[in-house]
Amino acid sequence: MKIRPAVAPPAAEDTGPARPPAEPPSDDRPSDDRPSDGRPSDGRRRWRPNPEWTLAILGSLLLAVVLTWPTMRHPATTIPGDLGDPTLQAWQVAWSGHALLSDPANLWNSNTFYPERYTYAYSDTLLGYAPFGMLGSGFEAAVIRYNVLYVLLHALAFLGAYALARQLGANRWGGAVAGIAWAYAPWRLAHSGHLNILSSGGIALALAMLARGHGWSLRHGYRPERRRPGWAVAGWLVAAWQVTLGFGIGLPLVYFLLAAVLVAAGCYGWSWWRKRERPPFGRRLLVADLAGGAVFGTVTLLLGLVYLRVVDLNPQAVRSLDWTKMFSPPLIGFVTAPGDSWLWGERHAAAREQLSWPPEMALLPGMTLIGLAAAGLFVSAFPVRHRVALGLGVAGTVLLGLGVTLGGDGDPGYLTLSNLLPGWDALRTPGRMMHWTSLLLAVLAAGMVTALAESWRRPAAARVSRAAAALVLLVPLALVTLEGVNRTPHPTVPTPPAAMRTAPEPMLVLPAGGVGDLNYMLWSTDGFPRITNGLGGFEPVTQAQTRVAVATFPDAGSVAYLRGIGVRSVVAVPSRAAGTPWEGIENRPVDGLGITREDVDGTLVYRL
């Protein structure tokens, strides 16, 4: 029999108690568990890639490409979801990059909705993706950029949830299950056309960084020796970036972090009073929190002021609570998958018929995830009190997600927050609280999987081979992956007519109104000419007036109106005009109107 030499126990870490000296290092040892501080003998610190996180990043990218397929099959010509909101959001990313490079002072005054102002803030802006908007130019670049972002945001969601689960005390198996279950939850497939809703990876990543910076985990609580002020600053900056992607998802994060700060301060004060001594915190960490929190608060405030300005200019932009009531899901929605789910879509068709608005009410986080999280309430690597807290968090977010369905009026509940918290009334879709519900479920599931994995290392299970244990642990991993498989449509994006590149601006594109305006916004990425068209979270008064005034174009009245608001040309696409007031526009005479008409490859250009 071979005698294995004793080895020194690993340093304290977030995934479990120290092992006996005779136990070999585990594959589940966290990335910061090293026998030394990483400095060579000469005392200088040298950077070395961390195998776990290198693999996690590469794995997240590969998984994203596979589970969003066929997004990257034809990234220059197709787009996931539909031809509505994705084309708007492709324009948004392109505009922010273009504006910041060419004319930052007019970032908020976009080239659409002419002659209105602050038009870039007519919906969630995705401003945080502006650096991507600086890469390339034109229509094709905008489509490719959107598809790449669509894949990357899924990778970031996985990586953020993985990092959070690991920081809170899960091992690598638990982190992987949490990452896939959250990033590819079935309910997300209902939002394949909403880049702003899918872009939530920064939430989990910010929480992971903040927890790491403060030396805190679910498994071990607060450990002052693990404080890292730099990670705390990074967490605040990521949270600020998340807010720049839109208040629809960012505002709940703002209030969560505010509540977390107040609770943490209260617990700190209570511990100080009870023990008659100040708990260790540190000046550097306090400075990091103050600086990072100031950046976070400033970004939130500045963006909020922009949206308030939009409301001042457009009072009709205020959304009443009737919107919240309309989008409040029934309880069955939380176990109903959207139609784009490969595994559950057809099986849940009958349940979706009971939902008045399935895109916002089919909220299944995953059957496997629900089962693992339920088991995690009883068997987990996390302490009982923290499991209870996570369970209460799940229940609370579900009740909020019900909106007015809870108790018949949502008060107390979601409408209470709408009445008390500034800006909350603009969050018209309670079901989007599923971001938080599914994240809490993922953490519970990670604790359960971690406990299962660690049970194989106990003496009673010594006869079980590592290969057999890995096969058992692959089951939950495979199941959550299977539930994330999509059948999302990828329609071909209509290309802009060549006439738009030569027509004088400002211009009007006909037929106007509806989803077509979203396509025109994307078309305008070729040079960003000013256009009167646009579609956002509300309709400005001038746009409705313009649509009515030009219903009979070309005639004397419509020409005079367009000249009056400064429009210099009209681009009409007869092939898109069927069923609109402009059907047959190519047969309408222009004699005596003082304008010219030119046919450019089937598109009509009227110069006023």
TrEMBL record:
The keyword Secreted does not apply. Keywords: Membrane, Transmembrane, Transmembrane helix. The chain crosses the membrane at residues 53-72, 143-163, 170-187, 193-211, 231-249, 255-273, 285-308, 362-382, 389-408, 433-452. Residues 1-47 are annotated as: Disordered. It comes from the Bacteria. The keyword Transmembrane helix applies. Residues 26-44 have a biased composition (Basic and acidic residues). This is Uncharacterized protein. It comes from Micromonospora aurantiaca (nom. illeg.).
